[in-house]
Amino acid sequence: MYIAASRTSDLASGTDRKPALKRVSANVVALGMVSLVTDVSSEMVTAVLPLYLVLGLGLNPLQFGLLDGLYAGATAVVRVLGGHLADRWRRLKAVAGFGYGLSAVCKLGLVAAGSSVAAISLVLAADRTGKGLRTGPRDALISLSSEPATLGRSFGVHRAMDTVGAFLGPLVAMAVLALSLGSYDSVFVTSFCIAAIAVLLLALFVRDRPGNVDRAAVSARAALGLLKQQDFRRLTLWAALLGLVTVGDSFVYLVLQRRWEIAATYFPLLPLGTAGVYLLLAVPLGKLADRVGRWPVFLGGHVALCLALVLLCGPVYAVLPVVALALHGVFYAATDGVLMAAAGPIVPAGLRATGLAVVQTGQAVARMLSSVLFGLAWTLWDLQPAVLVAAACLAVVALAAAFAKPVRP
Fold first, then answer.
1. What is the membrane topology here (predicted)?
2. Range of the structural domain that residue 153 is part of
3. Model confidence over 182-212: pLDDT tens digits?
4. Would you say the pTM of this structure is higher than 0.85?
């Protein structure tokens, strides 16, 4: 309705303005709403889980790194599987819906898991499996519902709406904790109810847009053949290398909490700094990527993360956490949707979900290893040396990627 109304208004006034939402299809907006509600649910859990595991259950940095790596890496294989099945069956929406539903049910699984680290690990793995199954088909739907010249804008709008959910999630978690007198189970049950609403929105408002290709053409051999394409292979490898030297979100927030001695009560608010900046910059940086090139913007995001890591090792001034969180938000705004926008045009439409899932899988595996390695470094070397080494590695790889230029302008 908004799109139609703004178009009528522009024609009546004789102007040719093209606001962000006018250039984005209704399907992208619907997917953005699904992601918004889903992220409220998932970020409720994400906001309280690190504190619960480290302070509540007493995990050391290496143990937490292993669990965080599992959380990040459980999607690795199923991303490609989900993308391939969605392309093969030409049912992008159905596969994505199954993934959203599985993640919703896992919120109740956290209630059943109690304080068992092993059970929590299994539930988190299943939750990330759901995320892995849905991510490739969802991003393929966004790509296939958009014009090639405005992919950055489309992904930016989607990620901005997604980030509204990420911003609201910790606030809802804190409200539920306050009303329930600190009951984590109440957070998990509320999270399930919200996730169920997202599945309903997907079923009602998102239209399927499978690539126009015969099923026989979507084979495992065709999927593996994508890696024979030089542009796609180089993009996938460099994205994975950058993921390997990327410090996970949970560690960034734990470093802030440790160095600035932030009270446990305020810990769930830390992701809001990242989410707020991400929300403000997702669309502008997506549009910038469409104009100046998606790879330079993608690398600029990693430079912002490198600066954030350096600040985390600096003097304990009150303003530095704010700046570090802002840079962390810039990192996500410049990388998350921009990478998918860069990968989309070099993947055939009939293999779009599979191709995007391959890129995401490379990142997922790399970030899983990154979490384990950073947790080990923190355990062996202490906090500041681990962060400085991570920042130095990120700077070196980002510089090499700038010279490599795997994506053509």
1. Multi-pass membrane protein
2. 23-205+222-404
3. 787 888 899 999 999 999 999 999 998 765 5
4. no
